[in-house]
Each structure stands twice: as C-alpha cells, then as structure tokens.
Amino acid sequence: MQSRQRMFSSAMRLFLRWFRLCPRRGRRRAPRWLRELWSYNRLLLKSLYFNTLTNSDVIMDCLFEPVFWLVDHLTRWFGVVFVCLVVILTSSILIIAYISLLPLALKTYSPAWIAWHLCYGHWNLVMIVFHYYKATKTSPGHPPQMKCDIPAVSICKKCIIPKPARTHHCGICNTCILKMDHHCPWLNNCVGHFNHRYFFSFCMFMTLGCIYCSISGRNMFIDAYNAIERFKSLDAEKQGVPVTGVGLLIGILPPGSVTGQSYYQTPPPAFTFRDKMFHKSIIYMWVLTSTVALALGGLTLWHAVLISRGETSIERHINSKETQRMKKRGKVFRNPFNYGRLNNWKVFFGIEKRSHWLTRVLLPSGHAPYGDGLTWDYCPRRKDMMAI
Ligand SMILES: [Zn+2]
Ligand SMILES: [Zn+2]
C-alpha cells in the first residue's frame, strides 16, 4: 500500500515538473525587434501625457480647455459691445436727467436743493466719466519680455517669460498682467497694477451715482408708476369697453342707453405723448439705477473687503487654498502683502499725506500707483508662519 502511494506521489511530482517546463517550451516569444518597437511606442505614448504634477485640477482644466477657449474669445470680441452698452445706458440716464428732471427741479425745488443737486450730480458725473475713461485706457502693466534681474516666482507657460510676484497670465488679453485682479468685460481691459485704483473708483462712484438717482427719484417713480397705471385704464376706456348684461339696469339707466347689447363710455381727456414719455423715462431710470446700485454695490463692497486684506481677486482664491493647506500642517498662513487695513488703503489710493484723501480720492487724479508692480515689499512675518 505504501509503495503504491510512493509511486503515485513520484508520478505526480514528475507531472508537475513537466507542466512547469511545458509552457516555456511551447511559448513563442515575439522577435526582439518587435518587442523593442512595442516598448518604444508605449514609452512614446506615455511621454505625451505623463506629468508628475497631474491631479484632478489639471485633468479638469484639460477637459474644459475648449470651453475656456470659447469663453475667452467671446469675451474678447464682446468687450467692445459691453463698453458701448455702458456708454449708451449711462448717456440715456444723463439725457433723462437733463431733459426731464432738471427743468422740473428748477421750477419746483428751493434754491438750496437746486444747488445741492447741481453740485453733487455734476461732481459724481465727472468722477464716473474720469475713472471709467482712465480704467479702460490705462494699461494694467506687463512684465518685461526680455531677460532682466527682476526676481521672479515662476515662469509663464504661455508667454515663456519669468513672472514676478502677483503677476498672472490673462487668457483673454493673452499676456501676463502685473498684480492682476481680473479681466473686466465692462472695461474691455484687464484690471491690474496700474488701473486697479481707477476700476475701484469707477465702481464706487457709479454705485454712489445710482444710489443718488434711486433715492432722489423714488417719489417721482411712484407718481410715474401710478400715472402709467391711470393711462392704461384710460386707454382701455378710450378703445371702448363693451358692457353686457345690463338687463338689471333697465329702468335705472336713462332711456336710449340700453338699446343695444353694448355701449361706449364718454371718451377720457387726452394725455399727450410727452406726458407718457416723461413718466416712462422716470420708471426706466429708477429701475435701471436701482438694479445697478444693488449689483454694482455688492461687487464694490467685495472689492473693498479684498483691498482691506491686501489681496486681489485671484490672490483671494490662492490664499484660501493655501490657508487650508497650511492648516493641515498645523501652520498659519499669512498674506505677505497685507500691511494692515489702513495701510492697505493708503497704498491702494497712493496716500502720502492727509490732504491726499481729498485730492487723490475725492477729486480726479492721475497719479501713478505705489511701486512698479515688479517688486514688492513683504510684510515682516513670524517664523511659524508660511507665505507663498
Ligand atoms: Zn503669460
Ligand atoms: Zn485680460
């Protein structure tokens, strides 16, 4: 019995050895040149898309690249349309103010109120026009294209030039912008180091102008709205409203008035085309200025918060990500360009002495911003804090 088991086990061992050796003998290996060609092509294919820095953000950017391309090109071409829209809408409000409101104010207001409206309205208008013109026409600033000794923090992949701190590439302008905040389609220009103050001042004075129009025209809007409603009812009556079912009124109404199935009321007094246009223009002005005041007011407040923190819109995004990253490491991120709330505003408006708050903020001023936008003073920081 034991000898049979030994024979069986030795036979199985031989079979397993044969089974291990058999595939090697039977496998037909591809020729060496074919294997080399295969591995070369595989390496070539991987080299086309392999990136050690690849993450979900890079993949999403690649997938959405056609969408970004389309949006960039549309924004570039529609920039002129947006600028025309700003000019047309602002001009329409001005025309209404000068043709409809000013004569009425001169007739009905007291001299003190007339003086206030004339002074404030024209000052606000000058500030809006000046800052809008400067924001659209002033170049935001670009880094030098040639090699220089300016300290750079990275290389722009599209321009292939060194990028100084706070510089970012604008896909719509297709160039690098110093201290880039964002590309504004309403200006058809990038908001950067040299025109950031003009952009913010334009937003601020446009919001103030819209709030001024909205508040001072509130009662006129209510009157105009009621008048338009009255016009509508009178128009309906003028066309003739057939009155049916007057059977119950037989005997109450004068004889002859219920002879037919319908009759027409007395024609209303005539309202001129000028009256209607006046009231409609008041409604248009109030709705437009109130809407812009709300929308632009929110944007202006957000930019005011960013300026208080010493950040641009792009840096807000980067800094919030960096804050989260540092928090995971048990460190605190500190913005190196935050010089303190008041100092940030002084740097932003270029305030060097007290009188500049009047001459450089509340009056039109074309002074250059602090610094050249290429090098920046870093706020001193503690050792346990990290900054990019
Ligand atoms: Zn660039
Ligand atoms: Zn741009």
From TrEMBL:
The chain crosses the membrane at residues 80-101, 113-133, 198-215, 283-305. The keyword Membrane applies. It comes from the Eukaryota. It catalyses: L-cysteinyl-[protein] + hexadecanoyl-CoA = S-hexadecanoyl-L-cysteinyl-[protein] + CoA. Its EC number is 2.3.1.225. One of its GO terms (cellular component) is membrane. One of its GO terms (molecular function) is protein-cysteine S-palmitoyltransferase activity. Residues 154-317 form the Palmitoyltransferase DHHC domain. Belongs to the DHHC palmitoyltransferase family. The DHHC domain is required for palmitoyltransferase activity. This is Palmitoyltransferase. It comes from Albula goreensis.
